[in-house]
Amino acid sequence: MLVKDAQEIWGEFVGLLQKKCSLAEFQNWIAPIHFVESNDSDIVLEVPNVFVQDYLLSNYRHELVSYFPLNNKGEPSIRFVIKEPRRDETVSEPVFIEEKKEIDSKYEIKLNLGYTFGHFIEGPSNQFVKSAALGVALRPGKSYNPLFIHGGVGLGKTHLLHSIGHYCKEQHKKVKVQCITTEQFINDLVDSLRNKTVDQMKKFYRNLDILLVDDIQFLQNRLNFEEEFCNTFEALINQNKQIVITSDKPPSALKLSERLIARMEWGLVANIGIPDLETRVAILQYKAERKGLKIPQKVAFFIAEHIFNNVRQLEGAINRLSAYCGLIQTEITQEIVETTLSELFQYVPQKKVTVESILKSVSSMFNVRVQDLRGSNRKKEVAFPRQVAMYLAKELINESLMKLASSFGGKTHSTLLHSWNKIKKQLETDETLRRQIQMTKQNLES
Ligand code: ADP
Ligand code: MG
Asked: Ligand 1 pocket: which of 159, 289, 308 to mutate (most atoms <8 Å of CB)?
């Protein structure tokens, strides 16, 4: 295999995946993989960790097989190398100092009891972050440092942060862990300035083995506090003490000093995305069960379809249902859900879906032009997305087949029905297509 050829093929392969997966999936799992070299027998790819390697092999095996030469076992001939940590200073083993005296109760770690790894439901949107968090909890200071977790509200950032805290407290008993919100850090600092105990505070934070900081976005526009935080951060990281930070934005989008942003980008920056429908249903069922609530699967899907961008709201829905059904001792049905949760559903933007909006969404998902989707070109690159658009139109728009078909540049209703059948069948086995369709739907709703 010529080096240039292999590299080009890798480039094409990455291009293909970029079209196939969501932005979050691509950034978390694919973008960190780098082509290193190729020789007669295999190509060498660099991955940040073994999770990324497993992810690629288990989710895109089929594509890998069609792009790359195979070895004698019929597997793609790829050799993976794990990326060395970016900082080239010699990384010494972190030393965990045994606690000598009782920690001032002010500094006692407070963790939400329910926020443990065991209670965290995994799905494609959060698998990567969960693995990274677990990696940090297993080997604090030795895997990714700092670990920076970012994502929207109510998606489980605090849950994972506390999970690391719980795990470390239980498994590494001698380790000094603190988990604080950024506001708490600021308040501590204000208090200690007032009480002239800043040195004590500094000593406390700088003696930690693991510092877990929630919601760093609140440090924006707090210049003096930022400086103190940055000093603490550096003091810890220079001793290879573990830091984990959560934020609603990636480091580069935060209005913080370049110095701090660069520090936060040193380790692993991981995005936690919106859970897909199946994961939302799994979370819903898990939480309902813990409350002793039985939700029929169909109703669970109905709720999860209407509350889709925030897990906290899903919990709110369960609390309401539990209160309501406890009061009147009844089974949960779709009607009850509609009555008790209608307010929560109101916040869901209910845009009217039209053939036009479907075409736009499909066009950007599959990278084809709207006019081609309406046209009659039968090349697979165009015909397939067209069939997807027809499928979605029949699924989402309450109109006659004839009317829908005519909006596709005057097709017949049997063409539309044929496309719908074909895609429906393919969806039973094609995970990638399922994900693409889900993304397209989400796009329509946003
Ligand atoms: P964030 O900090 O990102 O705003 P939280 O961690 O506070 O979100 O999560 C909001 C609620 O949703 C919490 O009660 C948390 O337990 C729950 N939650 C979020 N993601 C998951 C998940 N994947 N599995 C189980 N519960 C989750
Ligand atoms: Mg939070």
From this structure: 159
Helices (H), 100-197: 127-138, 157-171, 182-194
Q: Residues with beta carbon < 5 A to ion ligand 2?
A: 157-158
In a domain, 140, yes or no: yes
Q: Taking a C-beta distance cutoff of 8 angstroms, is the pair 202, 234 a contact?
A: no
Model pLDDT for residues 21-64, shown as the tens digit of each residue: 777 678 777 888 999 988 878 899 998 777 778 778 878 888 88
Range of the domain at 386: 355-445
Ligand 1 touching residue 154 (CB < 6 A)? yes
- CATH classification at residue 52: 3.30.300.180
Rg (CA), the chain: 25
Evaluate whether residue 210 is within a structural domain.
yes
User: How many domains does the structure of the chain reveal?
Assistant: 4
The ligand 1 atom nearest the CA atom of 286 = 25
Task: Quickly tell me which residue has 């859900």 as its tokens.
Answer: 337
Atom of ligand 1 nearest to the CA of 126: 23
- Decide: 251 and 148 in contact? Cβ < 8 Å: yes
| Ligand found nearest the CA of 311 | 1
Q: pLDDT digits over 401-422, tens only? A: 889 999 998 899 999 999 999 9
